[in-house]
Every structure is written in structure tokens, then in C-alpha cells.
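[09:14] KT: can someone run the structure on this one? pasting the chain below
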Amino acid sequence: MPALNALLRILLVWLLMVVAESLHGVLRRALFDPDVEFVVRQASVLTGALIIFAITWACIGWLRIRSTAGALGVGVLWVVLTLAFEIVVGRAMGLDWTRIASDYDLLHGGLMPLGLLAMALTPWAVRRLKTGSDRRAAPSR
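[09:31] RB: done, C-alpha cells below
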């Protein structure tokens, strides 16, 4: 049962990220002209990574990640879930495979692989930062 509870917490935080990123995308489409869509999508990889970092920072204690391997495992699971989500939603919106793949083509400016790498490493980085700040704050004996 503890593994199920941990998985549920990981999935709930990922769903919070999906909602936040979806709102981020809606705002992007509402605020920017379609003529600059690709450039704005590129920039949104950075702002999206910041959103993921902030959510992870806020939820890291609740996630109860106990090890480096656990943190990296959470990040990889989030990436797999995100890839599946992106493909399913993209296809449901009628996007063709070329359009979906364009976000992942580094050679042509698609920066999603960098965003996914950031997502994969965020639980590890946040855990390390929080643990490091806890060690510095503790009085030495």
C-alpha cells in the first residue's frame, strides 16, 4: 500500500503540472499572435520549466522522495506521462504527426527535449537544493 500511496502522490503532482502547463498554453495562445507561435512556444519551454520547478518545490515534502534514484525515477515517470499526454492531446486536437514532432526537433528549433530533460531532473535538483539548505540551516555540533 505505501508504494500505491507514493505513486498516487506522484501522479497528483504531475496532474497539477499538466493543469498549470495547459493554462500556460491557453494564455500563450490568447496573448500572442499566431504569426509568432513557434517562437513563443520556444520561449514557453523556459517558463514551463520554471512552472514545473515551482510546483515541485512546493510539493517536494509531500512527495516524500528519499533518494537520488527515487527523485530521478519520479522525473522519468513525469516525462513518460507527459510524452503520452502530448501525443494523445495533439492527435485529439487534429494535429498531424509532423506538427507534434516539430516541438521535439532540436535541429529546427523545437525545444521540448530540453524541457523534458529539465522535467526529468527537477525532482532531483529540488531535493538536492532543499536538502542542502536544510543542512546549512542546521546548527553544527
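[09:33] KT: thanks! Residues 134-141 have pLDDT under 50 and may be disordered.
[09:34] RB: yep, looked fine to me
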